[in-house]
Target: DnaA regulatory inactivator Hda
Amino acid sequence: MAGGQPIQLPLGIKLRDEATFANYFHGPNDAVVAAVRDFADLQLAPQDSCLYLWGTEGSGRSHLLQAACHAVADTGGLAMYLPLDELAEESPALLDGMESVELLCLDQLDAVAGVSAWEEALFHLYNRLREQGGRLLIAAGAAPRALDIGLPDLVSRLGWGLVFQLQALDDQGKQEVLKLRAAQRGLQLSDEVARYILSRGARGMVELFAALERLDQASLQAQHRLTIPFVKREMGW
Model:
């Protein structure tokens, strides 16, 4: 994002509007969220030029990276979000010049781990960004040394900066996230109905959000509030 406007990549990658810090349920991750917020605040001097997040799928890694980009763009700064799982088949040459970005967010690092051309490009980008005074925010499913990265120098660089693990939410936390997302959609989701969705549906956050999206549409069409019988009927449970 540049001055609040998106920089266009070949694949037309865009940030999700709802992926903001205000919409992120902290749960057990208060310290991590605070660190990412500070890292994205261009008015604050960062403790290091690189911050690395890791955690299981559904822990909110992508949300936090996109929230950081939104925060920088809102202050007129220059930020870029790159989901490497969508770009792995592209040439790593697309990283050329990215050191000019004030905040560069690289998501799903796992997708290019073990690919020598990408590893070399990331290593040199890291060095250029550090020299330019930029900030690099990375997310992956495992800690740097646990990824299948073949370039030792890249592993060491990734471990130089701040490394945080995002803790997975327990059932109570997932329930609170569902209620937060429902409220943002103008839906009233009671504790009882939220618990029912958790007990009957898939338990991953991606699947839970998809279920909520489906229920939101059904509720609008039927002009019906979310009750257990309604959810049961619409979801086929």
